[in-house]
Amino acid sequence: MSLILRLINPVVVAPTVATIGLAFFSYGFPQAGSCVGISIPLILLILIFTLYLRKISIFGHKIFLVYAVPISVGIVWAYAFFLTTGGAYNYKGCSSNIPSSNILADTCRKHALTMKRCRTDVSVAWKTAAWVRIPYPFQWGAPTFNFRTSIIMAIVSIVASVDSIGSYHATSLLINLRPPTPGVVSRGIGLEGLSGILAGLWGTGTGSSTLTENIHTLDATKMASRKALSFGAVFLILFSFVGKVGALIASIPLALAAAVLCFTWALIVALGLSTMQYTQSACSRNILIVGFTLFISLSIPAYFQQFPSSSTLILPSYLVPYAAASDGPIHTGSKGLNYALNSLLSLNMVVALLVAFILDNTVPGSKQERGTYIWSSSRNSDVDPSSVVPYLLPKKVGSLFRWAKWVGS
């Protein structure tokens, strides 16, 4: 990653990260709007806590700013529970556990979506989940390899790495540290890859990457201690062995979860665009590049996604980009190439990265205009060795990776 680091600037990072949040606009409120009785109150509560009550302190702590999301979710979740148990979403002769495709009565079919999105007892996980469950490698079977999908995931991983680079730099400025050196950045990306491999072995279904929203968390809590994060990680690992914890979270209504994402994805957009503060944001060069990238990264995938999929399944909106690969507009002599190109060009963040990367590195501009990241080499004589110490791995952990060049500073 340090080899291409000099080509990745805030002008590239800003639209790429912002597009990650914008890509899911068709999923956010369309899902939350299916049950406005609980989604609208949740959105309003989060906005009130984070914007209007953010400066209120209780015992010296800004509770409403730091815990805006969990407090809001807890209040509205309890409200949804009382609505469910009180019969607000009960309809005569209708059951929420019957798939809507199997409902014959028109009256029940009309209320099926409301029951699925609003009730807190739709999930049967609480009854079926074990109290103690030990996850183990290859628990879902041996891994499989597909060359076409591997190419797509490799490109998407690069997009995630660019997102992480922007997060590293923004965090260093937030906690008053010097920007990470190329070695530190490469180590961070390498460890994310190692974590992704471990996630794949345990079959989590998701990879491991930097969460951009945590920049907001650091800013709100003013807490960047490794010990605090490690302490929290231990609790998360322990909770993963208790099946009922996941079952409890699964009882959150879908509309409630979508309402939370309306806030978190909007936060990603804002944090992505905030990296433009390190550039001459009023420069016409940057305005045109970022504006064009944002528009075209939404428009091109929309064109690819309009082609009907060969699949007979009814897919949710967030899976539509992946369905474009099966029957997109690009037709070459190679089915594998068709699959890869149709898939990649239907993903908003991939288009954003390609367009911003090409334009920023081909359109003339000074370092001040581009906001070139100060990824100083650790070998430079003007770099104080003590300034790199906060980025080093703990001694016991670092000793295990001495053989790898990318763990250096």
TrEMBL record:
InterPro entries: NCS2 (IPR006043)
GO cellular component: membrane
Principal localisation: membrane
Alphabetical UniProt keywords: Membrane, Transmembrane, Transmembrane helix
Pfam family, one: Xan_ur_permease
MF terms in GO: transmembrane transporter activity
Places the protein is found: Membrane
Record field: transmembrane: 7-25, 31-52, 64-82, 145-168, 228-249, 255-274, 286-304, 339-359
Membrane topology label: Multi-pass membrane protein
Family: Belongs to the nucleobase:cation symporter-2 (NCS2) (TC 2.A.40) family.
Protein name per its UniProtKB record: Nucleobase-ascorbate transporter 11
Organism listed in the record: Dendrobium nobile (Orchid)
